[in-house]
């Protein structure tokens, strides 16, 4: 089953959640496939480089307030997600993206106008248009638990403050050494009795399944702590959000 994109591209059917959880590749088109790397593959590729890659592809204009203002002199909410992706696509040409896009030649993608639309096309004839990009970005956000940043400013004065706040955060971050995102998560889970993987076999897990386990265990332990309070009489069950009692939701 497939759908037809805005330019007639054949796009495969929507995301199958169970297949995604199992770590299967996501076929957006017959030529664009997104692979879920394992923790071991991310370590080999380089964790810092990996998260830089996926965060760049899935970025929204609200993530790039400073860069958009400094380079174009416009506020981020005047740019679409797709236009942002096109603007940063040149920087992706020199990056080895095979860890998530196996067999896809990113180095030869160029901006072209086709059917009055600006798209990316490589030497193999593979195209990325607005519809395909949305599928790519949404999938990457889903498997990495990225929250889609859609911040907006009330007025231009507020937007300027938000831009400068982000600039200060970037300066502070640039002064700090890289801190691993995965190390504390892997260390915590492999030392947790409720996590069934050990230090020697956790590395085989696809990134999506591993990050899902992090969320699930947090939810499970929240549930257990609430129930301890209920049984001890220190928490009124009537005041608990009922969603917190269903850790399998």
Question: Would you mind describing this structure in some detail?
Answer:
The protein has 249 residues and is mostly helical. The chain is 46% helix and 9% strand. It contains 9 helices and 7 strands. The two termini are 28 Å apart. The model has no long low-confidence stretch (mean pLDDT 89).
Count the helices. How many? 9
Strand content: 5-15%
Mean pLDDT: 89
Shape: globular
Give the SSE order as H and E letters.
EEHEEHHHHEEEHHHH
> What structural class results from the helix and strand content?
mainly alpha
Helix coverage percent: 40-55%
Secondary-structure blueprint:
Layout: E1 2-4, E2 10-12, H1 17-22, E3 26-27, E4 33-34, H2 39-45, H3 47-57, H4 65-72, H5 81-92, E5 110-114, E6 117-121, E7 127-128, H6 130-144, H7 156-175, H8 182-190, H9 207-232
Antiparallel strand pairs: 1-2, 3-4, 5-6, 6-7
Summarize the structure.
By secondary structure, the chain is mainly alpha-helical. The chain is built from 9 helices and 7 strands.
List keywords for this structure.
7 strands, 249 residues, three-stranded antiparallel sheet, mainly alpha, two-stranded antiparallel ribbon, 9 helices
């Amino acid at each position: 089953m497939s759908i037809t994109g805005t330019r007639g591209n054949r796009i495969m059917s929507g995301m199958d959640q169970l297949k995604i959880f199992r770590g299967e590749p996501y076929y957006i088109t017959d030529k664009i496939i997104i692979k879920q790397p394992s923790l071991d593959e991310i370590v080999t590729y380089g964790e810092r480089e990996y998260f830089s890659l996926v965060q760049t592809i899935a970025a929204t204009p609200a993530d790039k307030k400073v860069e958009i203002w400094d380079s174009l002199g416009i506020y981020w909410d005047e740019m679409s997600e797709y236009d942002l992706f096109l603007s940063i696509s040149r920087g992706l040409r020199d990056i080895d993206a095979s860890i998530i896009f196996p067999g896809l030649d990113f180095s030869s993608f160029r901006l072209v106008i086709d059917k009055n639309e600006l798209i990316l096309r490589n030497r193999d004839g593979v195209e990325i248009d607005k519809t395909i990009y949305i599928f790519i970005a949404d999938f990457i956000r889903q498997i990495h638990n990225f929250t889609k940043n859609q911040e907006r400013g009330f007025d231009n004065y507020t937007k300027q403050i938000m831009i400068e706040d982000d600039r200060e955060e970037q300066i502070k971050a640039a002064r700090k050494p890289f801190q691993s995102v995965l190390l504390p998560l892997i260390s915590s889970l492999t030392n947790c009795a409720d996590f069934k993987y050990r230090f020697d076999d956790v590395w085989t897990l696809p990134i999506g399944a591993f990050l899902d386990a992090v969320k699930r265990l947090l939810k499970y332990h929240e549930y257990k702590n609430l129930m301890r309070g209920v049984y001890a009489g220190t928490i009124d069950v009537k005041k608990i959000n009922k969603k917190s009692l269903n850790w399998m939701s």
